[in-house]
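lol ok so funny story. i was supposed to be doing the assay writeup but got distracted and ended up predicting the structure for this chain instead. priorities right. anyway since i did it might as well share w the group, maybe its usefull for someone
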Amino acid sequence: MKPSGRLEFPPWANDTAVHTLFGALGAAGITARFVGGWVRDAVRGVTLTNEPDLAVDKPPETVMLALKASRIKVVPTGLKHGTVTAVIAGAPYELTTLRRDVETDGRHAVVAFTDDWLEDASRRDFTFNALYADLDGTLYDPFEGRADLVAKHVRFIGDADQRIAEDKLRILRFFRFHAWLGRPPFDAAGFMACRRNAGGLRGLSGERVRKEFLRLLDAPAPADTVDAMREAAILDHWLPECDGAARLRALIAREDKPDPLRRFASILSREADATVIGKRLRLSTQESLRLEVMLAADPVIDVAGGPKAWRAQIYDLGGNLYADRLLLATEAPGDWRGALAMARGWTPPELPVSGGDALKLGLKPGPKVGGLIETVERWWIDGDFTADRAACLAELERLVRAAS
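and the output, tada:
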């Protein structure tokens, strides 16, 4: 594979760890080149954001021996697929041997190792993901990926239907990369191939779908991409509850920081069942519970009620969940910015009395104690948390006398 350009100032040029890694590999006759996110970022002239991935032209066992000979820590993270991870000064560098596909079934690939760079490039998904770079910034670009990256054009390598047949997840990756790196219009051949093959997504695991879709939603402005996916029936199987991106657009206009799960909630219909969706997409228990709170009809967020109402709901929900509900309640009138600032900065106090105080007043343990404490708590909240312990004890004593 011939060089096709050069990065004038490769961002890794002065990275001591990178030079150590390349020195160790070069001493063993191993050629290594950056591939993936670091190369895309370098071509775009943006700060390196991904963990570094490198391609190497020798088998993983040879790579491991070379690293160990230079006293570099190495972890066999995926020997079956040719991947090992070098760790230098605490930073991981993933190295994968050049590969060719022996067999694919749309979900998994059986690979064989090769030393042919073009063969490795040809099995990749999109043109700009087949960009390689040497330590000195020399670029290798067999499919004009640099031009596509600059033009913000997401294009499959070769025949789009064939690339998708090899791995159905590439349908979701096509839209995810478009959300992050593309601009309208979509590549027509790629879009139509994704539409034709959308049914193949049924064979994927919920974990893989969830990971790709949440990464897509983390992009700066994914709303148009979500609408395009809905139009192309990409979401029909895994997310039939998708209600379009109108609420997502409103959320993005007011959110203080992106949150993919909150954005996920914004595209779901009001009747969506968080438990069902959580099981289907293998959300964690914490994610499912958070989604359930975000989709719940109650409590209605009272923005117009001012600081007193804000504090009461922050106390009930907690600051983070209140912020979720507030940001999603784009139709609620009032000073939502003030409410959000309070959610981020106010720490709710603790109720000054407890069940133990009720027992000291002569009550026996049981549900009655809990009910009285709950009543005091609502009184305390209605008073905007101003009552101190003495006042709360006095209210508790009054309730006990009234109940006896």
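Strands lie at 5-6, 32-35, 53-56, 73-78, 83-88, 91-97, 99-104, 109-113, 132-133, 138-140. Residues 121 and 383 are 67 Å apart (CA to CA).
back to the writeup now i swear
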